[in-house]
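Example 3.2
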Amino acid sequence: MSHPTRQLLIDAGFELAAEGSLHRLTIDAVVNRAGVAKSIFYVHFPDRVAFLVALHVQFHERLFERILQAVQGLEPGAERVRIGTQAYLNDCLEERGVKALLLEARSEAPISAEIQRRHASFVELEQEDFAVMG
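Structure, written as tokens:
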């Protein structure tokens, strides 16, 4: 479980991400939105890139959980892929600002590595479906 202040910073990051581009998501903007001192940011994150990775991780963890809920109880196959894909796309539309920001940040090596890890988890989820479909 995340420390409440760490989560406050991440929530502030999500709010800012929904409002603008990556260049507007500065440490100063995050701490101002969260209402905490800048030094508190560094208690939880060593730098901005680590913060962006944390945003990415939490966004995709929530997304993955929603997909799992949407397909829970469904037999592997095309219908489960369709429903899971629909859940993915709907959530991305709901949080399009965050999704756009995270895509913009993908040039950072740690974020790129996290993206690859997340893609692998989605591939793992879908393997049984595609095997059933041949």
